[in-house]
Amino acid sequence: MAQLERPLSPFMHYRWQYTNTLSILHRLTGVFMSLGLMLLVYWLVAAATGIEAYDAALNLFSMAVVKVALFLWMLSFYYHFFNGIRHLCWDIGWGFERSVARKSGWLVFISAIVLSILTWMCLSLRIYASANGGLV
Amino acid sequence: MSLQSPLSKVLGLGAAKEGASHWWSQRVSAVALMLLAPWFLLSLIALGDVSYASITLWIASPVHSVLLSLLVVTLSYHAQLGLHVVIEDYVAHKGTRMVLLLIINFALLLLAVMAVFSILRMALSVPAIQIQMGTN
Predict the structure, then answer these.
(1) pTM score
(2) What ipTM was reported for this prediction?
(3) Residue B71: CA atoms inside 13 Å, Cβ hemisphere, count?
């Protein structure tokens, strides 16, 4: 019996390109940030438990591995934030043209990286200064 | 001849039944987070001090505790909606899918309640006079 030529689902034969990279990154950063929510809640619970629990939380946050994770969460937040605005614009019908979508994609990508670095520097400078008697 | 009832013709939902409520809730919570998340980041930078004393005093202020509670509840809700779609899209096995959906629903509700309870505990245990002195 001859094999039927069945139609394939689009994802089986579409070329990998920037559109689906940005789209899957939105989901990946969202899932990753859901894990980060546990750390935010842990921080709040520690603060409500008492000074010892809070200091233990601060110690955890100052570990190098956790700091790297925190930076990745910051990067994910800004990416998801800006790409989310991009999606909301599409929802009201703005920016569907190919050239505009390409530009807004780049804008999201670059602003996420720039703002993550800026926020990180700002936060660590301020926190460092307050812990060392106000250098700034 | 169409077999659709006049009501289903007007509703225009086809076989979807629930319409777009899930999609819409995702957007509404996204818009709320567009306001709440930058508020939290900017506040942390402005506060610039993550010591136990200043964080608990900051959270205890009525405006901050309400906005922070709204932030964690909206974050959990938005994460629940997003993770739900991701699990439905990528987990093909029915049993695994149901177990995963139960886990994320329980976990996110637990996180939201723990966070709100912790915030309330801090807000209600710091005397108003101390908040006034701290914010002035």
Answers:
(1) 0.87
(2) 0.87
(3) 21
